[in-house]
User: Fold these one by one.
Assistant:
Number 1:
Amino acid sequence: MTDRVLGLVAAACGGGETRFRAELAEPAAALGWRLAITATPTFGRWLEATGEVERLRALTDLPVRHDSRLPTEPKPYPRPDAFVFAPASANSVAKLATGIADSQALTHLNQALGSPGVPLVVGTLVSGESAAHPLWPTHLATLRAAGATVVDLLAVDRWTSLLDLIGDP
């Protein structure tokens, strides 16, 4: 295992509870990334309810998080060298594009967005209704202008393809 840390961040989107581990976490660990996994609070509840938290913990020596730490608690992992945010919901994309950091997951992503040398890939999983919102194209353009690579997960066969966009561990 490398010392290079991949921040894997996920929001509550349909399919995430089954595809996140199989198509992102397991392949990233197999490539040699040290995984720092953070879920939005809602997705964290989904992962706990389906037993996925324990399966994800087996892939990393770092905590799997979805709650913020207390000020007296140490940081649970080093700053990641790259980030993959997938699946990313319309709500989470809007928050990231406008700088809202109301969860541990979005705090990490907001700190990474635009940071030189820190690749950030955002895999959106957004329905036609949400994508029809008048600000959706603006949110995507804002993320791209800040240096993020944005991929529509509905247009790819396997989420594993996102790992090709961050480089080697």
Note: Residues 23 and 159 are 5 Å apart (CA to CA).
Number 2:
Amino acid sequence: MSDELAIKLNDCTTKGYVIAPAGYGKTHLIALAARVSRGTQLILTHTFAGVNSIKTKMTALGVPASKYQVDTIASWSLRLCLAYPKTSGWKTENPTSKQWNKLYACCSGLLRKNFIRHVVASTYAGVYVDEYQDCSDLQHSLVCALAEFLPSRILGDPMQAIFDFDEDKPVDWDASVYPFFHCLGQLEIPWRWEKAGDPKLGAWLKEVRKKIEQGQRIDLLGERPPSVIRVYTDPEYLASKQYSSLCDLLGHNESVIALHGGDQQSKNKTHLLARTMAGRFSSIEEVEGKDLHSFLRKFGAAKTVQAGFLLALEFAKKCFTGVGDALTAGTKRGEATNQRKGTKYPLVLHAANAYLNNPTSSQLKSFFLALKTNPATSAYRRDLLYRFLNVLKLHIDGAGATLAEAANLYQREMRHTGRPISHRKLIGTTLLVKGLEYDHAVILDADALDAKDLYVAMTRGSKSLTIIGTGRYLPTR
């Protein structure tokens, strides 16, 4: 079926769509279609992690590099607009988050110029857009501009449309896709679970998807495969039940993702639970790294070394448990302190004194590394910690006049290289892990998730799914 559908995608000369549920081989399909292409295909997605995933699949299937160019919608649009600044009206090389929508509008206008269409059509034989449910209305307008003169095939899953755009709306498939793009097909085989050796889990999730699409609820007491574990609890015991369930998953080296929904309250809960777990599970940060950038702005504005160090201590408490227990009373006040006979952790004391006497990024990095190796402390926001250590390294190596500038450079670099965290036991939100795969998934407070967040959470684990909640039926809303 995949080979036939790949040929159908390649033969499409207008614009079409493919519905691709989570774990059904969408990236594989794009690679197969590109392999039979006679020209270069432009393949657009949303993240650099997605770019890397597609490139990896292309290499694995032996697709010649001449047959495709993979990029994010943002990067491709920016590069095209900067190549024609007078015509596009765009000259900003590093747009802020609020400027991207204007860029997409500029790029859509540029793509309606005949000479630009000639340039683009001379470069590419067609377009594929991956993860289309994550497109905003403005990005959809840009794709429609491309589709006016190039074969354009979009692949996505409306069931995973959970992104919320600040100043734009997500694309409405009913209003903007189905009436104007023709259906090329739908992926039908849940390959993620077939390959993991649990086809029963894949089949169960396939039925779950159908029910959610039809507005029905899932009966957790109904028939389900052994790898779907229901953990029922009364509301007052939810927190302790979640804690014990995660502890039960610590006895192996396979990857585990524990998931809350995507709202701000849920984001805060991920860090709190990771702290409660004393770092045995580590929480994932937002891509934007707001807590890190906020700290660096305040740190850069500190009037004295002592004030800056006290800010660093507060930031350290966001990364580690047990910071207070590792410090002497003088260190807690931001003062250089002599080692005494009763000093528990002299290495931390010496690192703090070294920074207070010589406040450089190198000394600050040494202090955080001393906390990292200290037996009384445990990193529970490793993602946040490792980003900070990487920013310090960049600054030490001479990148950026200030730590804030080094952080901006690192942020751009991270979009290409991915998160610096490699811990196997993680806590996150559906928004942060959509599109990613783990061995085991745990849904925390499952009753709080809406239908789409629930489906995204359910499809992250390839070997098992644990659902922790207080009710029998999901979704509850």
Note: The mean pLDDT is 94.
Number 3:
Amino acid sequence: MSTDFTQDHFALFNLPRRFGIDLAQLDSAWRTAAAEVHPDRYVSAQDAEKRVALMRATRVNEAYQTLKSPVDRARYLLQLAGVDTAEETNTSMPAAFLMAQMEWREAIGDARAAANVDALESLLRQLRTDVKALEAELADVLDSQADHQAAALAVRKLRFLEKLDQEIGDAIEALLY
């Protein structure tokens, strides 16, 4: 494999440049590419060739991790389109979304205070259902509508939900261990 460092991540794995990708196809393409560029295949090579092999392996793994994660994949697609998600600077969200965040945090706090692991696990399942719905919305706005601003907002929303997921997971872990 002659990893072209100018290729985007999708081209590297011979995938269409879209949010909705076949994850099994990504996994298969990654395994093939990773086997081809694995540094162990270059043990007896010259130092310069070993360094290139390591760079190629790193590139393949970073590309795979980016495309495997829905949030990172969406962020990457937007980056390719020249759109900054402004996650660090743009914290404006629709009022309904912010209210939902407050309700989530209150429910998490109540369940944590009551040491109710079942309630926390139920919240986690609900949250992950919401995440899947938002990912479906993201696929639509990116792949069908090419609405980059709506996609950037969806990425920012997903970041909020990722933080809630982590918070719930931490609360469950704290109660169980």
Note: The longest helix spans residues 148-176.
